[in-house]
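dumping this here before i forget
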Amino acid sequence: DHKGDRNIMTPRRRLITIATLTALPLLALILVRTAWADSLPSSMAVHWSGSEPDRYGSPDTYFWIALGVSLLATAVATVVAVRSSADAPLWLPATVMASWTVASTWILSVALTQNAGRPEDARIGAWILVPLLGIPLAAGAYKFLPRPESSQEAERPTLTTPLSSTERAAWTGQVRGRWAGALTLAMALAATVSGLMGAWWMALLFT
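structure:
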């Protein structure tokens, strides 16, 4: 059934779908910043204790921080998707969460400040759940992504000469995390940026 085959999403399409999902918050961030260009407050609430703000910052400064993180996340997601990397289940959920969290945090902070009229009067309430949606989005991305097939059987070593009854053989191997260093650096960067944006609860997610 060729029609049925066309409806099956291939691993490459799944990768591209999640990479696109990473880019959507970046696009929303740019569109909102453009739409609000003439109405941005001079200062906005960026951190709350309970429902009341206790830290403020420049919308422009935090916009460039959010834009930089979202751009980096989208670039990483694009490279991983194009290369069909076996590390995609590790990288793409992280890029989805990072892009969504920083973009939605900036948009939410500006919107709450504009609605209140003054940054001191901005109340977050249940809106704090909006950036936290990055967690289920990342979990959904992880479940949606294809898994690489195991190559253990193909890599199993074989003897060229049979062993005698008194001989024994053993094989050793080394597993290297190619992305371990880069992932650690990315997580540290995400935690630092989250802290700079005043979202210390978010920074804890990356540490």
